Amino acid sequence: MEKAILIRIGEIFLKGKNRDYFYKVLVKNIKNKLHKYNLEIESSNNRIMITSFNIDDEMYIIEDLKKIFGIHSISPCVKVDSNRESIEEYINTLKINTSTFRVTVNRADKRFEINSTEYSKLLGGIILKNNHKVNVDLHSPETEISVDIRNNGTFIFDEKIPCSNGMPVGTSGNGLLLLSGGIDSPVAGYQMAKRGMCLSALHFHSYPYTSVQAREKVIELAKIVSDYTGNIRLYIVSFKKVQEAIHEYCNEEYMITIMRRIMMRIAEIICKQNGLQTIITGESLGQVASQTIESMTVVNKVVENLPVLRPLVAMDKEEIVTIAKKINTFNTSILPYEDCCTVFLPNNPIIKPKLEKVLIEESKLDIDKLVSEALETLEILDTNSI
Ligand code: ATP
Ligand code: MG
Predict the structure, then answer these.
(1) Is residue 147 within 8 Å of residue 117, measured between CB atoms?
(2) Mean pLDDT throughout 100-105?
(3) Cα separation, 346 vs 382, whole angstroms
(4) Atom 26 of ligand 1 has which residue's CA nearest to it?
(5) Which of 28, 52, 101, 133 has the fewest beta carbons under 10 Å from its own?
């Protein structure tokens, strides 16, 4: 008898033409995530099984599997030989802690001598003999003992642990997440990765107006998100000179709008240089002055050829916070270090910016020069080497 973990994959991508591709990427992501353990990954017929692991690692392997997008649920199992003696010997030891149960046999190996229905009854009888206070309930049992008989072994389990669902990371293109130190942008990245997008991230700092801790916090956030996505390449750019120039030459009401437009210009260049297909932000409609539809429209205008995705646009702060807590970014996000957006923050930012006026303010700057000087400060970090 040995332990195993059965992995069930999300239904959505089982049907389409790209099924084999999705499946291969998922298996690759599982291998990458579990490479630190000694174990075997068996995959055949859209069924993935983890075997030959150290029992002390089981709990950690389960926690890791819960973070992989594309997995629907998992079941820790006991694996015995596919013969009556071995199966019944194990069933004989079972103690049922609920008042009702059912046995469900799946005879995937048709060479097995008894059919599924008959064998379910027989095994149910053994359990009843050993557990005097329990009853069989075929329709809604509190415990379901599943017995999956295959040619390479029989897998017995009674637990189904829900996982992240979504699509395997790497099956839906790649995007550049504008990552601040706040609550929202890490969640935005998580949501896109859940739909299968591979993430890179771009952070603007304004050192020495912003602190070294603020930078460390963003690196930590990228690292936490990468627990779900695999390696994130983090681009870090100094925004100091851009902010100083806007502060010096432009009407302060337009400061945030112009900052956002310059962030987008830099983001688009980094995307083009690195084959990234979209820019992702953590904006949510109406959350703050710079997140009105008018503001988003004026900001989008500078991005010529890429879509800007805002996966949180229709979410309330409370919903975003719930996800941030679930994915473990919240406690880091609320550390009190300033983001560059709060440096030189105007008292009355414009809520509904007009493009003509923004263009007049921007004409006071040498934007191409500011953008290329900012790009000269570019640093690159990979979360898997931190
Ligand atoms: P967050 O919680 O993500 O910081 P927020 O509610 O504080 O969002 P803003 O400060 O207006 O909102 O930022 C909106 C979006 O702009 C962020 O979600 C992020 O995608 C991007 N952004 C803001 N500051 C930075 C930064 N310093 N570097 C990179 N992107 C940023
Ligand atoms: Mg912020």
Answers:
(1) no
(2) 97
(3) 34
(4) 180
(5) 133
Mutating to test ligand 1, I would choose from 325, 341, 350 the residue with most ligand atoms within 8 A of its C-beta, which is: 341
**Half-sphere exposure of 321 toward its Cβ, with a 13 Å CA cutoff?**
5
- CA angle, 56 then 58 then 61, to 5°: 125
Average pLDDT over residues 82-109: 96
Supply the DSSP symbol for 10: P
Other CB atoms within 10 Å distance of the CB of residue 66:
15
How many C-alpha atoms does 345 have within 13 Å on its Cβ side? Answer: 11
Distance between CA atoms of residues 348 and 310, nearest Å: 24
Q: 178 CB under 6 A from ligand 1? A: yes
> pTM to 2 decimals?
0.94
What residues contact 90, with CB distance under 8 A and at least 6 apart? 1, 78, 80, 156
Residue of 176, 177, 178 with the most ligand 1 atoms within 8 Å of its CB, for mutation: 178
Contact of 217 with 208, CB cutoff 8 Å = no
DSSP label at 341? G
189-240 residue pLDDT tens? 999 999 999 999 999 999 999 999 999 999 999 999 999 999 999 999 999 9
Q: Considering only CA atoms, which of 177, 268, 179 is closest in space to residue 215?
A: 179
Helix (H, G, I), strand (E, B) or coil at 43: strand
Q: How far apart are CA 210 and CA 338, in angstroms?
A: 6
